Amino acid sequence: MATEDKLQRSLFDEVMVPCYAPMDIIPVRGQGSRLWDQQQREYIDFAGGIAVSCLGHCHPRMVAALTEQAQQLWHLSNVMTNEPALRLADKLTQLTFADKVFFANSGAEANEAALKLARRYAVDNFSAEKDQIIAFNHGFHGRTFFTVTVGGQSSYSDGFGPKPQAVTHIPYNDVAAIEALIGDKTCAVMMEPLQGEGGVISPSLEFVERVRQLCDQHQALLIFDEVQTGNGRTGDLFAYQGLGVTPDILTTAKSLGGGFPVAAMLTTASLASHLKVGTHGSTYGGNPLACAVAEAVVDEISQPAVLAGVKQRELWFREALTQINSRYPIFSEIRGKGLLLGAVLTPEWQGRARDILVAAGNEGLMVLVAGTDVVRFTPSLVIEKNDIDEGMQRLEAAIATLYNYHC
Fold first, then answer.
1. Alpha helix locations (H) across 28-144?
2. Residue 138 and residue 30 share a domain
3. Which residues sit in the known binding site for N(2)-acetyl-L-ornithine?
4. Which domain holds residue 290?
5. What are the angstrom distances between the C-alpha of 50 and each of 258, 366, 387?
6. Mode of pairing for the β-strands spanning 368-369 and 374-377
7. Which end of the chain has less neighbouring CB within 10 Å, N or C?
């Protein structure tokens, strides 16, 4: 059994499956948008656990919800329902286009449910031959074998044997490509309404609207993966609301629980009817603990003042990054929406996004990457202005060190 002094980064290599290459620091405490490691060194968090910690660390409303529920009921499975799940599902349907909710534990599970529903809908209404799923290059939809195959990054899905079939990838934002491909054998189009892992790439309105039209024309379902864009991240409760294009199925996770594992697939009553008793399920999905926390998160982030605050914080981030870039020109553009932003590296700095991540960490700032050429920012939706200002000072110090060495 590990003693306190053995709980170091080296122990990870001894006891953990080597799927990850974590940083050397081990955070032990968090409050708001600040973290402290084992040596009590402080960090400002612009990463938010990869767009998860939407209210920062240990938000009092979340702590209260978890503490209260922990003293009442933890788990039942889906042999029974429970009050927190019913309240959360009711709120999600009231706040969105959806009539029905399926709860799961992760974005991959929610996406798995969405894809299975699309295939079942096609089988029930047309035939098993209507099975084509169209997805997009550089998309990301999870790590189950089905979702990683639908995701448009072959490096994640290669090397595991035969893949699920009838999945086709085309370029994102390419209207001509989807017009040429979609047909009567297409059962679903799955897309992020703003690509996150693929480089923080926004869709054009023309593209999204045309995808919706083509899905209607060919009786295919439109699935929006809002695992990263949902729950206020773009300044709307869900990104589809800001685009004015409504999907048939929506998936959400990450910030839905603000750090507690929970996910949901949202859809209409007519589509939901195709998942009958026994066709799909989840042991932990919709458990009282997760749903109680998620309800607190939804209550908080759905407030108009919080959503307006996301748009204000986007401006603060863009202004600060532009100022840094005027002194150390390494970014070609700042793209994204709300607090899902990507700083794209210039050709001279291509491939060095992780270098910036590491340098920022050395200065006491946590950021992310999206591929090798984009530095990604997904902070708390309620991050304080002084945390942004100080974090940007640390980012500039990190960039200055690299820039001066590079030059």
1. 48-51, 60-70, 83-95, 107-125
2. no
3. 143, 282
4. 73-301
5. 11, 10, 18
6. antiparallel
7. N
Domain stops at, among 255, 286, 301: 301
> Comparing 167 with 3, which gets the higher pLDDT?
167
Closest to 343 in 3D by CA, of 323, 370, 316, 363: 370
Please check whether residues 272 and 318 belong to one and the same domain: no
Mean pLDDT of 181-185: 98
Tokens describing residue 35:
């973290």
| Residue numbers belonging to the annotated binding site | 107-108, 140, 143, 225-228, 282-283
| The domain boundary residue, chosen from 256, 276, 301 | 301
Task: Provide the annotated binding site for pyridoxal 5'-phosphate.
Answer: 107-108, 140, 225-228, 283
Note if the pTM is more than 0.90.
yes
Q: Output the six-digit token pair for 103.
A: 């709860």
**CB-count exposure of residue 142 (10 Å: 0-12, 13-18, 19+):** buried
Q: What integer best gives the mean pLDDT of the chain?
A: 96
Task: Assign 388 a pLDDT band (cuts: 50, 70, 90).
Answer: very high
pLDDT reported for residue 1: 59
By the 10 Å C-beta count (0-12 exposed, 13-18 middle, 19+ buried), 382 is classed as buried
Specify whether the CB–CB gap between 245 and 208 falls below 8 A: yes
SS3 content of the chain, % helix, strand, coil (to 5): 40, 20, 40
Over residues 86-118, the pLDDT tens digits come to: 999 999 999 999 999 999 999 999 999 999 999
Q: Are residues 205 and 308 in the same domain?
A: no
